[in-house]
């Protein structure tokens, strides 16, 4: 049964109204009472002062901020109104401004809005409130950011986490397991191994401030930080690869294209050459860790391995670390926290991060394929084990589910690529309550990262290859085998939904395989990957 829309208009106050201008509607009741009413409302009507010389009043601003705070869409009646920071904020994404002569149409205009439009406006309104108006600090920082933007000064660079290195001895020769790099007769990278090189940083300082400021002001995390790079940077057209661009493109076959042999010799794609950093979290499993590091030997495009040492005890003095051809940085943490997995360590010098558990067992060809896919979807989490959120009908709540399914909404970050940009957001922008719950349960950091990326992009993650699990054979039993692990993850999902105010995870019904997978080829052609 459809419930008819209800409209509430109060013409009298139960108590003394707040002082107001002679030409505007007074505020009735206490703030708490008004907020409770607005929580039940989809829209909040805000009538601007009758004096045409006034563009806004304190009463209108109060109504506007209260509506944004609780998720009601402001409907501002009055075309002369100027909303706060109007030259920076795109208020049409969060509020409706209707000329007073059209007041008789308001009811029909509001009923024409779709559910998806309403959700987008409520989300945007809440973002504006939390970012610019919720506290004295946010208001002060907004004023400074507005002045800085107008005089075209970039924001201060966002801080990175200083890595305290644990000294260790290297020298153990790392063998090469043929099963880890099996790709038939094809190499998995260029014949000549390139030395480690960092991704370029801070190339768009001025353009982000001058030409892209509307996006930074109207999307999370706001204009308060300057990032070294983001997954949203524009892409050059294909001509740039061949007409003099010096940014380091590596087209397949020099531009002529090709199948497996030519494909493996160059990265191709739409962005310049780059490498990735492996970030591996470990806790008191030295033998497992050493085996995992050895398996990275000879991995193409690997820049560095950052081992996040979560153990309170330092590594054994006689432990000999493998020599895998790239630097291994062992970072000491202040406390045992799964949030340390996503700290933006200053030792991570690439945009691409492969987050991997110390007991994850992935072949080189799987890692290389995941890296290539991520390069085409830089704003997404790209990884191997898929999971999904399911609706618990009896309890009317969300469940975490790891069963085999044709629909996914999460990719576990125990084996996944993501952009370093999200490490900054996870550590410094995401609500602290989420990180606190991760520390309380020693669980759910991967769910939290999936929530964050889906909230920012409104896109699901991308699963690659047919893998459903990635644990190495013979490794000690992981915490995820405990029943309490799943109960905690159920609680995490429902708590995160409360923090965000909605369920940000989105479903996807496909996985990604290479272009020539299962394609019959002529005898003189080879597939991109032997098994993928």
From TrEMBL:
One of its GO terms (biological process) is negative regulation of keratinocyte differentiation. The keyword Transferase applies. Homodimer; disulfide-linked. Interacts with REG3A. Residues 276-517 form the Glycosyl transferase domain. It comes from Microcebus murinus (Gray mouse lemur). It is an enzyme of class 2 (transferase). The lineage of its organism: Eukaryota, Metazoa, Chordata, Craniata, Vertebrata. GO terms for molecular function: glucuronyl-galactosyl-proteoglycan 4-alpha-N-acetylglucosaminyltransferase activity; metal ion binding; protein-hormone receptor activity. Belongs to the glycosyltransferase 47 family. This is Exostosin-like 3. It comes from the Eukaryota. It catalyses: 3-O-(beta-D-GlcA-(1->3)-beta-D-Gal-(1->3)-beta-D-Gal-(1->4)-beta-D-Xyl)-L-seryl-[protein] + UDP-N-acetyl-alpha-D-glucosamine = 3-O-(alpha-D-GlcNAc-(1->4)-beta-D-GlcA-(1->3)-beta-D-Gal-(1->3)-beta-D-Gal-(1->4)-beta-D-Xyl)-L-seryl-[protein] + UDP + H(+). It is a single-pass type II membrane protein. Keywords: Disulfide bond, Endoplasmic reticulum, Glycoprotein, Glycosyltransferase, Golgi apparatus, Manganese, Membrane, Metal-binding, Signal-anchor, Transferase, Transmembrane, Transmembrane helix. It is found in: Endoplasmic reticulum membrane; Golgi apparatus.
């Amino acid at each position: 049964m459809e419930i008819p829309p209800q409209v509430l208009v109060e013409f009298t106050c139960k108590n003394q109204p707040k002082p107001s201008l002679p030409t505007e509607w007074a505020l009735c009741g206490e703030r708490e009472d008004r907020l409770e009413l607005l929580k039940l409302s989809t829209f909040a009507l805000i009538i601007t002062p009758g004096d045409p010389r006034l563009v806004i009043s304190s009463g209108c601003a109060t109504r506007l901020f209260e509506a944004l705070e609780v998720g009601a869409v402001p409907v501002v009646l009055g075309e002369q109104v100027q909303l706060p920071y109007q030259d920076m904020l795109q208020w049409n994404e969060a509020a409706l401004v209707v000329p007073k002569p059209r007041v008789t149409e308001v009811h029909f205009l509001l009923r024409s809005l779709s559910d998806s439009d309403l959700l987008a406006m409520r989300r945007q309104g809440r973002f504006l409130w939390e970012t610019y108006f919720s506290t004295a600090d946010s208001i002060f920082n907004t004023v400074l950011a507005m002045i800085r933007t107008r005089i075209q000064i970039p924001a201060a660079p966002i801080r990175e986490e200083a890595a305290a290195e644990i000294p260790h001895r290297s020298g153990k020769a790392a063998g090469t397991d043929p099963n880890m790099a099996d790709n038939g007769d094809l190499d998995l990278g260029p014949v000549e191994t390139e030395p480690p090189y960092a991704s370029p940083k801070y190339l768009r300082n001025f353009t982000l401030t001058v030409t892209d400021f509307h996006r930074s002001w109207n999307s999370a995390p706001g204009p308060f930080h300057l990032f070294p790079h983001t997954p949203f940077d524009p892409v050059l057209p294909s001509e740039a690869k061949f007409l003099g661009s010096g940014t380091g493109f590596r087209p397949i076959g020099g531009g002529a294209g090709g199948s497996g042999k030519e494909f493996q010799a160059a990265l191709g794609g739409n962005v310049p050459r780059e490498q990735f950093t492996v970030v591996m979290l470990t806790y008191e499993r030295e033998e497992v860790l050493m085996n995992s590091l050895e398996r990275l030997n000879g991995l193409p495009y690997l820049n560095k391995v950052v081992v996040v040492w979560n153990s309170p005890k330092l590594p054994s003095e006689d432990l000999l670390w493998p020599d895998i051809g790239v630097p291994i940085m062992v970072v000491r943490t202040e406390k045992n926290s799964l949030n340390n997995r996503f700290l933006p360590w200053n030792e991570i010098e690439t945009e691409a991060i492969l987050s991997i558990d110390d007991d994850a067992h992935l072949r080189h060809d799987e890692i290389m394929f995941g890296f290539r896919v991520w390069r085409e979807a830089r704003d997404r989490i790209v990884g191997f084990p898929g999971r999904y959120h399911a609706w618990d009908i009896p309890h009317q709540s969300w469940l975490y589910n790891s069963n085999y399914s044709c629909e996914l909404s999460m990719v576990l970050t125990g084996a996944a690529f993501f952009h370093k940009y999200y490490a900054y957001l996870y550590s410094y922008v995401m609500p602290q309550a989420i990180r606190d719950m991760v520390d309380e349960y020693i669980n759910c950091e991967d769910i939290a990262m999936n929530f964050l990326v889906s909230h920012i992009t409104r896109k699901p993650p991308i699963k690659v290859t047919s893998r459903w699990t990635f644990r190495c054979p013979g490794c000690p039993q992981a915490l995820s085998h405990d029943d309490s692990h799943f109960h905690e993850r159920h609680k995490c999902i429902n708590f995160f939904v409360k923090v965000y105010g909605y369920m940000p995870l989105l479903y996807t019904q496909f996985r990604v395989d290479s272009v020539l997978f299962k394609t019959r080829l002529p005898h003189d052609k080879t597939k991109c990957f032997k098994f993928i």
